Amino acid sequence: DESQATAEENLCASLEGFSAALANVQGVQLLNPDANQANTSVKRARATWSGVQAAAQEVQEADANALSSAVDGLESAAQDLPSGSTPAQIRQALQPQLTAVYTAFNEMYDGLECSTRNS
Predict the structure, then answer these.
(1) Cβ 49 vs Cβ 25: under 8 Å
(2) 71-97 pLDDT, tens per residue?
(3) Residue 48, Cβ neighbours under 10 Å: how many?
């Protein structure tokens, strides 16, 4: 049905925006971080994730629960970073959470076959 196809395309576009926000988290926090930048990047990813959640509500087979849980974990880890954390401490705290987000993201993105929609 056409409305379902449109909803899926919108969700794929939202996921691609979220992917860009995750890349920013990866670059800012894990390559050249400080605690304030970490929290700002994660907040941006969270805001982008809200758009994905809204789009996912329109797609019948989109299960966003695993990705939502992973985003919550990343946000929580970033909020728990002590002020003045070293880059190594930030990487140690956030990398496992970011890996979980990417894993759940890839499952959702691949399940919707987004890469074939946009080619």
Answers:
(1) no
(2) 999 999 888 888 888 778 888 888 899
(3) 19
H/E/C letters for each residue in the chain? CHHHHHHHHHHHHHHHHHHHHHHHHHHHHHHCCCHHHHHHHHHHHHHHHHHHHHHHCCCCCCCCHHHHHHHHHHHHHHHCCCCCCCHHHHHHHHHHHHHHHHHHHHHHHHHCCHHHHCC
Give residues with Cβ within 8 angstroms of 70, minimum separation 6: 97, 100, 101, 103, 104, 105
Length of the chain: 119
Tokens 């993201």 found at: 105
Give residues with Cβ within 8 angstroms of 18, minimum separation 6: 45, 48, 49, 51, 52, 105
**Is 0.85 surpassed by the pTM of this model?**
no
User: Measured between alpha carbons, how far apart are the two ends of the chain, in Å?
Assistant: 20
